[in-house]
Amino acid sequence: MRGGESGRASVEGDAHAPAAGGDAPAHDRDAAILAAAHATLKANWREGRRRSGEHYAFTCPGAPRYRHLWHWDSCFHAIAWRRFDPARARAELRTVLRAGRPDGFLPHTVFWDSPARWRRAPLYATRRVRGDWMTETIGPPLLPFAWEIVAGASPDDLGFATEALAPLARHLDWLEHHRDPDGDGLLTIIAPDESGLDDSPKYDPVFGRLCHDRAGYFWLMERSRRLGWDSRAIIARHAEHVEDVWVSVAYAMSCAALGRLRGEGADGRYTVRAARTAAALVDRCWDERRGLFFDLAGPGERPVPVSTWTALAPLCLGDLIPVAIRARLVEEHLLHPRRYAAPVGIPSVAMEEPTFRPGFDRWRAWRGPSWMNIAWLLVPHIAAAGHEPAARRIADRLATAVLHEGFREYYDPRHGRGLGVRGFGWSTLVTDLLLPG
Length: 437
Prior knowledge:
The chain contains 15 helices and twelve strands. The chain is of the alpha+beta class and 437 residues long. The strands form five sheets. Strands 5-6-9-10 form a four-stranded antiparallel sheet, with helices on one face. It has a two-stranded antiparallel ribbon with strand order 1-2. Strands 3-4 form a two-stranded antiparallel sheet.
């Protein structure tokens, strides 16, 4: 999904931004970045009605290359929007929810303004090769998590917190039924795209010739179409699927958030489900020797020992993960100069991995560059582990990269050069790193 160049909306184009390379005070820098972030989100805002009459309002990741709605992008966009316009943040999340089916399924990608064009449609996970308005795949299930954050920034709409409790619950229940067929608490993905990390090297040994950047990817889509996108049937028939650490973490984060929105106690349905998934991650995915969490591949559930940022993702579950494990993730990996302690941001692949390729690649984007959403997810947990100076350093260096390069799709972790799409929506999450809370 990620790669390419497009139109620009960046700090360099903001009249109030200090000159790149200048020594502006931190508050001037932060004010310039905040103003440019708001401008970028406004430039990417799309609102209208489908021919059927359905209203939509969302932030495209970066036009023209990424002009549709992606589930986890929109969750991050709404989180960023809450600082500038909580009403738009709420509208974006309502649009994500509106795209789903009554049974609780929410699609990874939605083509609100028009179906996928004929050249791309066969490679999207649609029910037919053309003419569909959404994919049949999931994305990282962050909607209840984002809903809680946006609700907390919505004093003008106190009903928002509880207006969608039933459909959000149906969504998590759909995931439990369709993506946890063995009932162990870990979610299975049937295509690399479903984690949002389409071309991560951790999928190479699992999907092989069916990987996102290879010719066999069309067959991966086509054979799923032939099974009607019945994920339980796909998992039963084919070996190319993964109990994915990151997707399971996102699911647990959302279960915990929904439990809080519902006012559950410690023994509430979704609160218990979050704890169960966290325990399964520790019991089944934790590699004690390497100090990382690894995906489990295929019917044999074999670990995939590739160190990517998702091997650290259970940090996001906070106290649901034992403190000793969280300390190891931070101290042995995030602060390690040959692993994830890069000059700029947090690399998407450990720097010591043979597959670490942080430069621009039109077809493969999750093989080393630093992405803003990774830092947004992990930096607060670095600080919580007692390493506030390291957390602040990551935030400051990403802010400097944004100041010089604009809101780019991703950044080279070695020197901060901006790569991929310009005016990229979720890179505005840097505002949270500068002004947490």
